[in-house]
Amino acid sequence: MSYQCKNCGAKINPGAKFCNQCGMQTHTKREPAPLSSHAYRQVSEKKNAKGLIILISSIGLVLIVVAIMLFRLILPGIKPQNSFVQIKEVTGQPYGNRAIRIHGTGFGFYDAENSRVMIDGKEAGILEWEEDEIFIVVPPGVSGGKKEIKIENPPLFKNTVIQQEFLEHKKVELARAVILPETEMDLEGEGFHFFAPAGSVTKKTEIIISKYDEPSKDDSPYWTVSGEYSITDRKGHHIFFEKQVFFGVDVADAEEAANASFQIFDELSGSWVAAETWFSETNARVYIATTHFSDIRSFFSDMRQGFGRLTDDAARNVSRKITYVTDKLGTAKDWTVELIQDVWVDVKDTANKDNKTYFDSVSDSENRFIIFWRKTDYQKDPSIREKAHLMLAAFVHAYEEYAAIFGVENMPSVTKTKLLSGFFNDPVQVPNPIRVYIDPRYNKSGAVAKSATTGNIIMPSDYQDDDLVSTAAHELFHAVQYKMLGLKQLYMATTTYKDLTDNWLTGNNTQLYRFYANNVWFFDATAEYAARFIATNVGFEAEDPTKTPMIHPRIEANRPYYANNGVHEYGVSSFLDYILTYKNSPDFAKEFRWLAFKEMWDTVTGNYSMASSINVPFERYVYDTIKENADGAYLNFWKDMYTLRDMPDANIIANGKADVLSRFKKSKQNHEMQIMGEAVGIFRYLINPHTASTIQDETSLNSSFWFEVSPDFMHGDVYILSGLSEFDRVEERPLAHPINYANSSLMDALIPYKTGDTCGLVAILNNTTFEDTTAKITLASTELKWDNQEEIEKKVSNTTLRRNDKLKFTPILPKLKAGDPPFTAVVLLNDNYDYLTKIENVKSGKSFEVASPMQDIPPQEVTVNIKIFLRDKLVHEYQSVQGETKAIVRISGPEVVRYVLEPDNLKANHSFLAEASPKVGYDFIWV
């Protein structure tokens, strides 16, 4: 059954997401099904029910609402469970031991003790847990059919459930054989060929080669999966070989062989990662060489290049032995699998044999890159052709820059090995350019939605941030990474293999998934660094010395440097530059960034062990380079970023910074922020006469600020600057005022402020634990109130003040810490040192009194100056001002006065009589 596109009328498949002609999205909202006669009758009966039932229902509803309101009044702290949690959809591969993403809202932060996902009663391994998305591995053994997915993250919510259809993934055994250490294995079956040279294993090993009845579902628009296989031991576990082994599958003809390749599946990333392969045109077979097999599948590109068909069946049988292949390729047995990106392509279009009809392309003179775009997209957006040429130039330039640093041998291959018939012909290299597809459907997701699962790259067509060139350079460096690392990349950029997580290392501990997933940050951070600082000058604006370099706007301070969420890891490139340049001989390093970057890359990847996290060699490199651990360097990175003048401008970051720049709304400024373990939170306050007027009244000449922070383990420092712009930063980091440090004194924590001044406060909190935490921070200020000012001034004005009248004051002060001396106050009345009083042991919130300034006769006025000290440090200075007097004004005259205005005289004089008491001077303003 076929459907027609509503936009252009072209025929489309029922399951297609987009029209293959015009690109219009085909999904529409499902119309509600019509009611059956039985259901219609039930609805009619309900509508005709007696009014009494309606009345009773209404009364019951009112009672329920009242009960709920009373319940909330009685227990205001209790919130209904799951009221804010919503699961919107599930995407990915719904098979056992495959990965899926659960999209929604309100999931909260990950808690290793409490966060759980259960599928059909089995616990799933958690790869990533974000507030709006959870990435998990479906437990092995989940069969086909509708299954329950249950999510819980107490105390935030419990038992949020969704039903999801899962698919059965069945496979058929093709062959079973035993490999011995001292002999080679040459196994050929229907449609496949496996060869293992002598020494591939260290002990007798039984292998099972299986083929799935159908490949995992896939929606790639640019390639078609032709078969999915697995090679395991007799227990179904992965096999690691000591030498390269070879696996080949038959394809239909030479054309398909030239356009075919292999992918390796990584369970814990849930994605198929392309392996660079080579092909034999003569026998129409595609081979992969590797030391490790997970599930593998073959695929071919839908973007055909027009190779001729083989029609001679005899030619298909020429040189079928893999020994011929290895002899001719020489070093092929030492090759490693070369991987490209592992991001999904989730659209399907133009999957037909005449794709050339729908695509235009441009390539460079050396056939290293070819840029494709749809003709239909060009008709809608003619700028695509210009962007394609710019993109091609960006890829070529980045290729040359990277090749100059790492060597051509470490660049992704742009040729392919072709085996010619005959025993005396050497293999030849034919062009195999990296293919780039410009796809407007990726404009919304931008740089995240790129795929190279076939060795290719998908790029959006819209670049609102003007980052086309750096985006191209970023994607290319991923290919460089995988070329240099080979099979090792499979575990570094994702997680690791099933045996490791399920059995002998972890004891099936799902927390390990997060540990290995930490590796991901390094590869996106280094790719972004290469793009911004090596292939382009985006990172430091070298061409414009008048510009202040900008921190990467995607970085999130409240995530640790090794966290990854598809955004933050890009921004961590700024942290890498901090280590490579600002902390490491700045003048030299800025000039030779490429050299420092190569040294870091070689050191970290060269010392990486697949049994641990990439953070281990990175930590070692950081300490050896700047004599500081990576976590400490990350904290200092943020401190320097907001205090030092030579650091990039950091006014815009993705998360982890709260700025208070306008008039304060309360006397205490309260803020909350989610801060992940080993991350920071940045709070900035602009203090000036305008913003401080709410916290402090006109009686405060000098005061002190301090910060109250919870929980107690959240430590931090406060820095005082002249403002909060990048120009207010200083040459050297200013003195820090500590927050929540056990060995610090209150005297060190107090921040002095003189009324009328302007300053910027930068508070940087550090979550020193491994747990994600909600930090609460309060900016507080000292205060002092003259409690009975109105009463005293009234007595002064009517000369009834007596010697036994006391002046009463109440201060607001910070809480003293153990070992701190008490506060003292010095009170001076009427600027007369005869009325000087010193008050010992002044406490916050508790009033103190002084005698009135009486001599023989009452004074004409009473003025008060109070200084509060902590030891010899001035904490607060109060200077009284005359209290407000209530005035009563009476205006006499008629309520309504009418004037007739002539065209030549539109003015009228109006007078009134006003009497005010008490009798002092007043100004009246007509409004």
Mean pLDDT: 75
Q: What is the CATH topology descriptor of the largest domain?
A: Chondroitinase Ac, Chain A, domain 3
CATH first level of the largest domain: which class? Mainly Beta
List the uncertain runs: 12-82, 303-357, 445-455, 490-517
Structural commentary:
With 927 residues, the protein is α+β, with helices and mostly antiparallel strands. Strands 29, 31, 34, 36, 39, 40, 42 and 43 form an eight-stranded antiparallel β-sheet that branches. It is elongated and about 120 Å long. About 18% of the residues have low confidence.
SSE topology sketch:
Elements: E1 3-4, E2 11-12, H1 37-47, H2 51-74, E3 86-92, E4 99-105, E5 116-119, E6 122-123, E7 125-129, E8 133-137, E9 145-153, E10 157-166, E11 171-179, E12 185-189, E13 192-196, E14 205-212, E15 223-233, E16 239-250, H3 254-258, E17 260-266, E18 271-275, E19 278-280, E20 285-293, E21 295-301, H4 313-316, H5 322-329, E22 359-363, E23 369-374, H6 375-380, H7 383-406, E24 415-419, E25 428-431, E26 434-438, E27 457-459, H8 468-485, H9 488-492, H10 498-502, H11 511-517, H12 520-535, H13 568-571, H14 573-582, H15 586-591, H16 593-606, H17 615-626, H18 630-641, E28 657-660, E29 669-675, E30 680-687, H19 689-692, E31 700-710, E32 714-721, E33 737-739, H20 746-749, E34 751-754, E35 759-767, E36 773-781, E37 783-786, H21 789-797, E38 806-812, E39 823-829, E40 832-842, E41 848-851, E42 864-870, E43 873-879, E44 888-892, E45 913-917
Parallel strand pairs: 19-24, 23-26, 26-27, 28-30
Antiparallel strand pairs: 1-2, 3-4, 4-8, 5-6, 5-9, 7-8, 9-10, 11-14, 12-13, 13-16, 14-15, 15-21, 16-20, 17-18, 17-21, 19-20, 22-23, 24-25, 29-36, 30-35, 31-34, 31-36, 31-43, 32-33, 32-35, 37-38, 38-41, 39-40, 39-42, 42-43, 44-45
